[in-house]
Design brief:
This protein has 282 residues and is an alpha/beta fold. The protein has 10 helices and 13 strands. The protein has 2 domains: 51 residues, Spermidine Synthase, Chain: A, domain 2 (Roll), CATH 2.30.140.10; 223 residues, Vaccinia Virus protein VP39 (Rossmann fold, 3-Layer(aba) Sandwich), CATH 3.40.50. The radius of gyration is 18 Å and the shape is globular. It binds S-adenosylmethionine. The site of S-adenosylmethionine has 26 residues, from strand 6, strand 7 and helix 5. Belongs to the spermidine/spermine synthase family.
Length: 282
C-alpha cells in the first residue's frame, strides 16, 4: 500500500508527498513532531502536520533567511535566532568568521533533539562553540533584551499555535529594542498567494512597517511551502537592503551556495504587482 503525507494548503487544495516510511512521531508539550523519508524530497520534518523543511529544498529557505541580511549589515557579530530549532539558520550563520555569538531561542527542546537525531543535514552545526541554545518562548525572551544584537532572525512556525506571539506588534517592538543602533531583523513572512496566508502576511508586514524605519519584503521559490511562493520580511534601523548590499563582500567570501547569489539578492526584492498591491493595501 502506498503511503502519502498530505498537508491542507486551503480548504480546496491539498499538497501530497509520497512517503517511504515514517521515522518518528511524538507529541511534545507544544506540538506533534513527525519525520518521514520520501523518494522525491528526502527526509522531512512536520510540526502539527505542517511542513517545516525537507532535505531537498531547505537550502533555499535557510540561505535566503541568512545571507540576505548578512550581506547588508557590514559587521554582524551577535545574532539572535528565534525558532529555528532544526539548526538550518545556525548552519549558515556559523560560516561567517565575524559572527562571535548566536543565541538560538527555541521553545521546544524536542524539536532540537529530533533534528539532531534525524536531520543532521540542518542540525550539524548546533554544537558550534559560538551557539547558545535557550529553550524559551521567543516572545518572552526578547522582552528582557536591550541593545544586544546586530541581527535578529525570526525562523518561526506559522502565526498560530506556539508561533502566534512572534507575529505581534509587541514582539516586533521588543525586537527593535533588542537590536543595536544599526541592527536589522528578518522573518519568515508566509505566502502571498492564497487569501488566508496573504492576510497573515499583510498583518505581519503592517506591524513591522509600524515598528521599523526601513522595511521591505523579499521572496523565494520554496516548492514544499503553500503555493511555493514564499516571502521574508526585512526590517532595519539603518541599512537599506539594496543600496547597502555589498556585492564585493559576497564575492570575496567565496561561499559555495546553491540558491543565494548577488543577482538573487537584488532580484528577490523585485516583487510581482499583485504582491506590491497587497503590501500597499495594509
Ligand atoms: N522554516 C520553517 C517554516 O517556516 O516552516 C520554520 C522551521 S523551525 C522548525 C520553527 C520553530 O519555531 C519550531 O521548532 C518551533 O518549535 C519554534 N517556535 C514556535 N513558536 C516559538 C516561540 N514562541 N518561541 C520560540 N520558538 C518557537
Amino acid at each position: 500500500m502506498e503511503l502519502w503525507f498530505t498537508e491542507k494548503h486551503t480548504d480546496d487544495v491539498n499538497f501530497s508527498i509520497k512517503v517511504d516510511r515514517q521515522l518518528y512521531t511524538g507529541q511534545s508539550d507544544f506540538q506533534r513532531i513527525d519525520v518521514f523519508d520520501s523518494p522525491e524530497f528526502g527526509r522531512f520534518l512536520t510540526l502539527d502536520g505542517y511542513m517545516m523543511l525537507t532535505e531537498k529544498d531547505e537550502f533555499i529557505y535557510h540561505e535566503m533567511i541568512v545571507h540576505v541580511p548578512m550581506m547588508v549589515h557590514p559587521d554582524v557579530r551577535t545574532v539572535l535566532v528565534i525558532g529555528g530549532g532544526d539548526g538550518g539558520a545556525v548552519r549558515e550563520l556559523v560560516r561567517y568568521p565575524g559572527v562571535e555569538h548566536i543565541d538560538l531561542v527555541e521553545i521546544d527542546p524536542q524539536v532540537v533533539a529530533v533534528c539532531r537525531k534525524y536531520l543532521p543535514q540542518t542540525a550539524c552545526r548546533l554544537d558550534d562553540p559560538r551557539v547558545a541554545i535557550h529553550y524559551e518562548d521567543g516572545l518572552k525572551f526578547v522582552r528582557t533584551c536591550e541593545n544586544a544584537y546586530d541581527l535578529i532572525i525570526v525562523d518561526s512556525t506559522d502565526p498560530f499555535g506556539p508561533g502566534e506571539g512572534l507575529f505581534t506588534k509587541e514582539f516586533y517592538g521588543n525586537c527593535f529594542k533588542a537590536l543595536r543602533a544599526e541592527g536589522l531583523m528578518v522573518n519568515q513572512q508566509e505566502s502571498p498567494f492564497y487569501p488566508k496566508d496573504a492576510i497573515a502576511m499583510q498583518r505581519a508586514h503592517k506591524r513591522i512597517v509600524e515598528s521599523f524605519p526601513i522595511s521591505r519584503v523579499y521572496q523565494a521559490h520554496i516548492p514544499t511551502y503553500p503555493s511555493g511562493h514564499w516571502l521574508f520580511g526585512f526590517a532595519s534601523k539603518r541599512w537599506h537592503p539594496i543600496t547597502d548590499f555589498n556585492r564585493q563582500r559576497w564575492t570575496d567570501l567565496g561561499f559555495d551556495t546553491r540558491y543565494y547569489n548577488s543577482s538573487i539578492h537584488t532580484g528577490a526584492f523585485a516583487l510581482p504587482n499583485y504582491v506590491k498591491k497587497l503590501l500597499e493595501d495594509v
